[in-house]
Specification:
Two copies of one chain form a homodimer.
Chain A (H helix, E strand, L loop, with lengths): L28 H14 L2 H12 L7 H5 L4 H13 L3 E6 L2 E6 L1 H12 L2
Antiparallel strand pairs in A: 1-2
The first copy, chain A, binds a DNA duplex (30 and 30 nucleotides) through helix 4.
Chain lengths: 117, 117
Amino acid sequence: MAPHLKKVPACGPAPASNEEPDLRPVEGAGADEELALLAKAVGHPARVQILRLLVRRETCICGDIVDELPLAQSTVSQHLKVLKEVGLIRGEIDGPRVGYCIEPRTLRRLKSLIGSL
Amino acid sequence: MAPHLKKVPACGPAPASNEEPDLRPVEGAGADEELALLAKAVGHPARVQILRLLVRRETCICGDIVDELPLAQSTVSQHLKVLKEVGLIRGEIDGPRVGYCIEPRTLRRLKSLIGSL
DNA sequence: CCCGTCCATCGTAGATCCACGATGCATGGC
DNA sequence: GCCATGCATCGTGGATCTACGATGGACGGG
């Protein structure tokens, strides 16, 4: 899986003015489903911790996350997968390591959806 | 179906300037747990719909919620219970009916916690 | 090469969630 | 009193979540 991946300077450090307005609606059946999906992904303390770690450090860390949490490596990997599947974080291969970082677009989207309540 | 719609004061109609600053921190272990709990409660489409219904109508409706959702009455009652347990909504008995309404404090708290990410 | 590191995935057991119908418990009308 | 109504709760299957150790694959150092 994922055969060719070029060397990437991990995640973008500072997207500067990454201010796309996000045209999607914040209400309606689709938005409800989307909000539920994102909220469910945030609905676990370990994943909240991971999100905070990635937000705090501008530089994207990797398996240091495992050291920060009182969980086994496989468990942390699963939580990372959940966050990645809903698009809240992104992982980039960097040699033997993997760097994770926040996906600001999705995080902003979540804030918009919550804000619409 | 039901000759309904009795005039119900139920939940507080207009909280007016209910602008307490909410002194609790938005970070730390406790906040992480709290955010996870609230997010999990929102993490289901039916509960998002319920929240939207209650936010939209200033007047607090009751089992009309059951009519709005494609779910059995007992299932809706369980979802209401989940939302009530985390303090996102409140139910008040009014004769044979129960009026539900948003708890604005908790909703603001959720927005603060999400905003801290 | 061979090996150690880093991470993802598999397999699994126990807990929790989600849906439903059935039942229970009030209240209010007759 | 008696019954209908509105809602909560119980009980129960099936699905999903959460944790772990074990295994596997990719990479880089020796």
